[in-house]
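ok so heres the complex, two chains, lmk if somethin looks off
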Amino acid sequence: MAARDKHGPGAPWGDRFQVIGAPRRKVDGLAKATGHAIYTDDITLPGMLHAKTLRSPHPHALIRSIDTSRALALPGVLAVITGRDMPIRYGVIPWTPDENALAVEKVRFIGDEVAAVAAVDEDTATEALELIDVEYEVLHAYLDPHEALARSEPAIHDTKKKGNVSKHVALAFGDVEAAKAGADLVVSGDYFFHGSTHTAIEPHCALAQYGADGVLTVWSATQITHYVHRALAAVLELPPQKIRVIQPCIGGAFGGKSDPFSLEFCVAKLAMITGRPVKMLWTREEVFYAHRGRHPMHMHYETSVSKDGRILGVDAKILIDGGSYSSFGLVTTYYSGQLLVGPYDFPSYRFDSTRVFTNKPPCGPKRGHGSVQPRFAFEVQLDQIAEKLGLDPIEIRRINDQGASTETVNGQRITSNGFAECLDVVERESRWKERRGKLPFGKGLGVAGSMYITGTNYPVYPNDMPQAGIQLKLDRSGLVTVFTGGNDIGQGSNSVVAYIVAEELGMDVGDIRVVAADTDLCPVDLGAYSSRVTFMVGNATIDAARKLRTQIVAAMAEEWDVEPRRIRMIAGRVIDLEDTERSVPTREAFQVAEVKYDTLGSTGAYNTPTLGGDYRGGAIGASPAYSFTAHVVEVTVDVETGRITCDKVWCAHDCGRALNPTLVAGQIEGSVYMGIAEALMEEHTVNRFGLHQGPSLLDYRIPLSIDTPEIEAFIVESIDPEGPYGAKEAGEGPLHSAIPALANAVHDAVGIRLTHLPLTPAKVLAAMREQREGAGSPAPATRSRVASDGSRAHVARDREES
Amino acid sequence: MRAFRLEVNGDEIEVAAPGHWSLLEVLRYRLGLIGSKQGCDKGDCGACTVLLDGRPVLSCLMLAATAAGHEIVTIEGLMPLHLAGGGAGPDPVQDAFDRCGALQCGFCQPGMMLSARALLNRNPTPSREEIHRALAGNLCRCTGYTQIIQAVEECVADSAGVARSTPPWLRVREESADSGSGSA
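and the predicted structre for the whole thing:
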């Protein structure tokens, strides 16, 4: 069992940290600044071939035949492969293996991979694609999840489930019906969250080399080296020890590189067939079709409250548009319900979530996987409740704050919780009390809160081995090399590992080298997803470093003939606290230890404690710690054009201890930017033919510097008892509540309640028109009524009147 | 195939490449200058930005042969140029991006830093608005641009000899440290 609970959140030497907690550069920052950092497409091997993918032009069709002979005859083409070359199915979640590297019998979305070509250069490979003859039998295409749910024939996948259902989860905790019956107010409404995609600036790329010794090496822009390793072994039918997967520097991921992708299998297979290295770099258009982005969700929420604003029960029904494959969809479906259970206390909760397949690019995990959409719906509904009860929107969130050291309604353990402080900070910094509700018409402030996981104790494939492993190697030169399977996707996980080793061994960060995400060299780590890396890899690093530290201290204690407790490792030296004249550079201490203990190294590991509710699915969403966030957003709404401008965002995020506040602030700012963009600008969708409506960075608009609001990030540190030095996560949580806070600000600005994303000018103008037309006969607040946005709200029992 | 001479980072180089190849392709796949990145290959993202006679251009939209006769600077050239000019270490823009946390995944940043360098060469004291506009041709998906703008503003402050401004998260941190009431 890993040493998860052996080290508390305090500093390792005395009461002050030497490295942790100060603004600090990244270990790879200057390599990236100078252009020296190597990304996958930057690697060229001798004799390397270039590969391209043929994709389906139909959203749903059977493949009648494929003839590759004309393509193979083209000079410069070395190999052409189709689904028959790799018929074994895979899927990142082992219970839902429904993908093929190349389509075998049918295609399920426009862009589905059908064949791949390896040629001497990219132009020849592209030309060869035109020469592959595929005969399709076109099938009815499902583009609307409601239709896909209502109809079973033709089925998109041959599963036993009816109505193209990918996953259905219904869970209930406490008595929701009793809560409704006993409530002073029940507010219900429909909400919609649209699709959006990751848009990492680096397109997916993979390169493979197959040695004469039978060792396959794959370099890939992936955030989950370990799962790619497993999938390659299964699909290519190779022993896993004959496969090496390496993640070079990666140009952004955000969840979009956390499935095994077709190109990784294709370059591997083509390298095996041709005996030459093969590279494939997707075009930007291909990346849009590969997708795995945010699931569109159609959501209905009914929240019961008492008249003083306490939440009594939440009842949710959610239809999730999954696109064409499962991907992480099983988890998405659970997360859509399981992660709403904070930062507010619910005595009762019920959710019923159904993910259906449609003939669209497959959805998957995007920053804030599965929980950003319900968070939008719920936080807007909570604002509606505050309005009806005449409560300040921040106040209703304070009233329901679940606090620290508690358990959620669905049995999840909450340890540290800084949500109350997050609310205080954004209230103070935005001057909420002076300004909210008092700005000129067209300007407004909105608030929202959220919670997110810090890793999950569900390791994708069930096993009892560590979720994170670390190896340390000490060199007599004074260098420490850390080997980690963790994937640094720009968030700085390699830097975090170096900071921790430097802290534990009292060294300069520059004397720590990190080797990461290479399955031959590094112990297994499950990858960069679910905001797990700092927490899990960080704890494993502390574990490994403390084992080594014990040896070095023991060696020096013996050398000096003193008690080990007198020895400290500080600022690159090992010293005797009671005789500070006695001190040596760390390098010398390493050499003394090497004489006494031989070659020096250590391993460390982390596993989550047993967590989660005692029911099927109770472990999904169970996290060793949760982060908390509050946003206040300021907007300007142009009532003539319907255009919403986000002027400023204040975001306070409880990340536990900030190991490097510069990196934490960067994660908060990047999350806020991405959330605001989803709300106002971005929409990943297909037209009525199943064609992407604009698969380019010109048509799918992500914000430029001039489109980005002013962002003020604030770090709240509720020191977590189990995190590394008390740290939690910062990469995903701060996205969530940006979106509902913006929608709530629009209400403060012009009085309209927008419940369907994205918040386009057309929706603003329609809501304003409806508001004007309905203005003549306002419904009394204490009666059942239909609100202007179409949501139904009624007072179940009006105790003041009765 | 065409043969032509390019002046890249101060070096005169003879290149042979297909006539339809972009400057980006020649830089990356003929000269091995892989610091210039391809994010879209159609002029939408700015990751391939290089300096041509001091002006930022999209190397993916420029035929390589047409760059002959112009001075090209890629990200690999910034530090050597700074050293050759008597400076120490990386270019101040590179150093500020690193210090401020502007390099998350780092993929868009070679282009971003070259746009910033071109701006500062042209105008050493740009306003925040001018910085935003100068960088508006370079998409970044990680940072929300905040630490990028901060990095450029720190370059401006340093060259003007005035104090760097403190970002909100650091201000609040310092205030709570001063009052001795750090959170939790």
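quick notes: The radius of gyration of chain A is 27 Å. thats all i got rn
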